[in-house]
Amino acid sequence: QSQLVESGGGLVQPGGSLRLSCTASGFTLGTYNIGWFRQAPGKEREGVSCIRSSGTTTYAASVEGRFTISKDNAKNTVYLQMNSLRVEDTAAYYCAAQPRCGATIIFGSWGQGTQVTVFS
């Protein structure tokens, strides 16, 4: 069974850092475009960042310069390094394989996500 599992969320103060992990099982993650998304309470899910199978990356304007997406093909894992966190980054974070970065559709279904809470 193919699935992605998110981990690494937690509580952090503004200005702090967290690294999220998205680990694949049942398929080779590096051959897909993998996106990170987030959903805050009462808001729609939004794209945060994406890494293509080629390794090129995209970022939402709100996280550009603060977040870095990367992947380790040997570990079948995509990471999202989040620095200079802000209260408005508080959300549940999800990863998903996509037909292309920026698409609103994903392959398969959403996982359970990992919660990031930035509190002052």
Taking the alpha carbons of the first and last residues, their distance comes to 40 Å
Order of helices and strands: EEEEEEEEEE
Q: Mean of the pLDDT scores?
A: 96
Radius of gyration: 13 Å
Biggest sheet: strand arrangement: 2-10-9-4-5-6
The chain-level structural class is: mainly beta
Tell me the number of helical segments per DSSP (H or I, 4 or more residues long).
0
Strand and helix map with partners:
Blueprint: E1 3-7, E2 10-12, E3 18-25, E4 33-39, E5 46-51, E6 57-59, E7 67-72, E8 77-82, E9 91-98, E10 114-118
Parallel strand pairs: 2-10
Antiparallel strand pairs: 1-3, 3-8, 4-5, 4-9, 5-6, 7-8, 9-10
Describe this structure in words.
The chain is mainly β. The chain contains no helices and ten strands. The strands form two sheets. It has a six-stranded mixed β-sheet, with no helix packed on it. It is globular, with a radius of gyration of 13 Å. The relative contact order is 0.31. The mean pLDDT is 96.
